[in-house]
Structure formats: structure tokens, C-alpha cells
Amino acid sequence: LHRANAQLRAQNERLDEFASIVGHDLRNPLNTLSISLELAERTGDEEHFERATRSVDRMEGLIDDLLALARQGESAGEPEPVSLAAVTDDARDTVETGDATVTVTEDLTVRADRSRLRQLLENLLRNAVEHGSTSPRSHTPEDAVEHGSPNSRGEIPEHPIQYAGTVTITVGAIDDRGFYVADDGPGIPDDERGQIFETGYSTAGSGSGIGLAIVKRIVDAHDWEITVTDSETGGARFEITAVETVDADGPRGVSHSASPGSDESDKAHSG
Description:
The chain is an alpha+beta fold.
């Protein structure tokens, strides 16, 4: 009975999450779309059509995120030995990285659900690219996490975002305990780090606040642990530990005693 009640509470919490996102995040671009089309009909100005197109793109992205969140089960699929470098390459191929540089400093074979590990990496890469130093909005730590606050989530920028500069993203091993994804963006403030994995939580801009929630669910499904700290360059560094790794002699032990920032040896050889 206790377990059934816990499952029911979890389902109700997920429904509340979806209702919040649909009610707020989707409504904003829908309103923008409606207004833009009305203005376009009156004036024929191409700018209003462009804004309408951005609203549609925004809604498509939110729907994709919601579907991904809905598909996240409580347990991962059958784990298999997976190359971190290979899955990072796969993830990079499906993320709009722009001028960003993605480097794997050291390959590592981990036991994981390959598909969900790829999704985890896709979301971390996307977060770094969209909210790291490539974005003109990302000049302060408050801009490093999932653009979109309770007052601004889902709103369409006045002008399309033009990326400037580059962000460097590093993926590597943490001894035999797991792996990290780090960037050289503005970093994440200490007082934000306890909230960034909450569904819908964002700081500023136009993101959904869903990507890092998906990351957390994938971590939990594998019984891994995730922490966020500073990278060597002052950016954000996500550390995924308690991961079962594999070497030539077979599986290594799993440690749950990782401390954030314990491995700062980001000395790269390109992957």
C-alpha cells in the first residue's frame, strides 16, 4: 500500500509538471504566434512572419521536450558496455553546436543504456551551447542555466538569437568513477545549483527548463549520481559518478563517495 501511494504521488507530481509547462510555456509562444499573424495580416511586414515562424519552432521544441520527459521511466534498459567517446560523437551529431568545440579528453567504457546515455549527453551539450559563451545573453552566471524564468519562460526574443564567439565543451573520465561534461561559459551560481534539475526551473531567456530535468531522470534510472561544480575555466562542470566502468579485465567497482570537482585534470587529447 505504501509503495502504491508513493507511485500515485509521483504520477500526480508528473501531471502537475506537465500542466505547468503546457499552461505557461506553450501559451506564451502561442500568444506570440497569434499576435504576429494578426499584425502580419494588417501590415504585410515580413518581420511579423519571421516572429510567427520562431514561435512555431519554439512550440515544436517544447513538445519534443515534453514527449522526452514523458518517456523517462524509473529504470534504465538493459545496460551494456558503451564507449563514452562514441556516444558523445553520436550526441554531437544531433545537437546544433554551431561554432562550439566538443573535445573528449579520455575515452571510458561504461555500462549503460546506450540510448538514454546519448540523450543525457545531448541535453548537456545543448545546455552548454545554448547557455554558454556562444550566446550574447550568456555574459553572467545567471545566464548559464536553461534560459527561461517563471516570468519569461517560453517568450520569443524580439530578434533571433545570433551566436557570437565560441564555447569549448570537454567530456572526459573521472578516474574509474564516472565522467564529466564541462564548458568554459559563465558557470552556474552556487545558490542555483540545488534547483537546476527541477522541471521547469530556469533563470533567464527562452528555454523550457526541461533538459536538465531529463538528465536527472536518466541519472536516477541508472542509480548514478550527478553534481555540478566549476570547471577549470570558471564554467559549468557536470559530474556523473557511481558509474560502473569496464576495462580489459572486466567491470570495475562502483564508488558512491565522489566529491564535486575532485578531478580537474582536463588535459585534452582530442576525441
